[in-house]
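Protein modeling request. Please complete all fields; requests missing the sequence field cannot be processed.
Requester role: graduate student
Desired output: 3D structure, token encoding
Chains: 1
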Amino acid sequence: MRCLRQAASVYAFVEQLPIEKFHGIGEVTAAKMHSLGIHTGTGADLKTRSLTELTHHFGKAGHYYYKIARAEDDRPVEANRVRKSIGAETSFAQDLSDVGQMLQELEQIALSRRATVRAT
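Delivered output (120 residues):
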């Protein structure tokens, strides 16, 4: 019973998700979807489209869009894969305008990322 409730909440989440939030759907694809009558931009709207219709308009990607609208993803989970990138983000209370201060902050970020790379 618990699994059914969890599945229902996953489906509800996917159905209310704007299509622009789905992985692989950017501005151009979303605009094309809107032009095809997917005006509300929700997963539920995408879910009403057939596999045939989606593959006709989006090729192989149509199959992917059909499955993600139904919360289906058959790709294996790779928990121990090779890291391809390391990011860093810092928010400041005020915009930095002094180049020297910017360079100091950038150096701190670089040192932090260097430590992360060495730890892996």
